[in-house]
Amino acid sequence: MPEIPEIASRAREMNRVLPGKKIGHIEVVQPKSLNLPPEDFCLALIGAVIEEVTYHGKWLKVRTTAGWLLLNMGMGGEILLTSREKMPVKYRLAIDFTDGACLAINFWWFGYAHYCELDGLQTIPMIAKLGPTVLDLSADEFSALVKAQKPGMRIKAFLLDQSRVSGIGNAYIHDILFLAGLHPQRKIMTISDIEISRLYTAVHKGLEPSLAKGGAFYETDLYGQKGGFEMKDILIGYREGNPCPVCGESIEKIRTGSTSSFICPNCQPLI
């Protein structure tokens, strides 16, 4: 599933080349990904000019003169800037611009393409419930947010709950908690101010290397090029049985609620 490094990279790329383009036609291949009937979705956006592309958590926000186009890639997919002569084999939505370019959007499993008016972001339930994007928070804001949670909440559950803080998922959570020296099952009430500060730093250290490389290797940019963040760049995530890069202890895979976690039992004790 694309997380901040992939979504922020796509937003940055799209914002470089899409503003000023006018939507001339829309082809909907997968109507269930829309929040409106296809004819209403197309009617709302055809003729609109793209103004800016930003992101919130795992959502891409395309602001146009006629409203917002909101994209969530679900478990993954591609957004390719191409032409009708070079369309990919699979796509779920195609946005044709009047200059001949085409934005081909594919969802691997599921995804969303929603429309709302410029003042209507809070009418989209999946947007309205999002917490702040984690990289947008200052150290003080992050600390206050952690302390505002229920004392018995587990730190991993907090970081993955998109309604509390958005943008982190299972791809990067393992290295973030490792860098912070925190066991994923630590309860918030046991975490000190120093540890919260360390966690804030770890969030940035855990996300920014991938962001600098355009995201993970299993995602592609607007032109079909794979991201530069590879398996060798991951510290402990998905490396069960390998030695910890800090102490040499064997990395373990443990069950944490409905998901698995990868930890160093020595560097991340459960206290």
Descriptive key words:
22% strand, four-stranded antiparallel sheet, single chain, N-terminal domain of MutM-like DNA repair proteins, 271 residues, alpha+beta, Helicase, Ruva Protein, domain 3, 2 domains, 10 strands
Report on this structure.
- With 271 residues, the chain is an alpha+beta fold.
- It has two domains: 4-128, N-terminal domain of MutM-like DNA repair proteins, CATH 3.20.190.10; 134-263, Orthogonal Bundle (Helicase, Ruva Protein, domain 3), CATH 1.10.8.
- It has seven helices and ten strands.
- It has helices at 4-17, 38-45, 125-128, 139-147, 155-160, 173-180, 193-212, and strands at residues 23-28, 50-56, 59-64, 67-72, 77-83, 93-97, 101-107, 112-116, 252-256, 259-263.
- The chain has a four-stranded antiparallel sheet, with helices on one face.
- The longest helix has 20 residues, at 193-212.
- The chain is elongated and about 60 Å long.
Instruction: Tally the structural domains.
Output: 2
Give the number of helices: 7
Label the overall shape. Answer: elongated
- Biggest sheet features: 4 strands, antiparallel
Question: Taking Cα atoms only, what radius of gyration do you get, to the nearest Å?
Answer: 20 Å
Q: In percent, how much strand structure appears in the residues?
A: 15-25%
CATH fold node name of the largest domain: Helicase, Ruva Protein, domain 3
CATH architecture of the largest domain: Orthogonal Bundle
Structural class: alpha+beta
- Placed side by side, the strands forming the largest sheet appear as 1-6-7-5
From the N-terminal CA to the C-terminal CA, the straight-line distance is: 31 Å
Tell me the total number of β-strands: 10
Low-confidence stretches: none
Average pLDDT level: 96
H and E string: HEHEEEEEEEHHHHHEE
CATH class (first level) name of the largest domain: Mainly Alpha
**Helix amount, in percent?**
25-40%
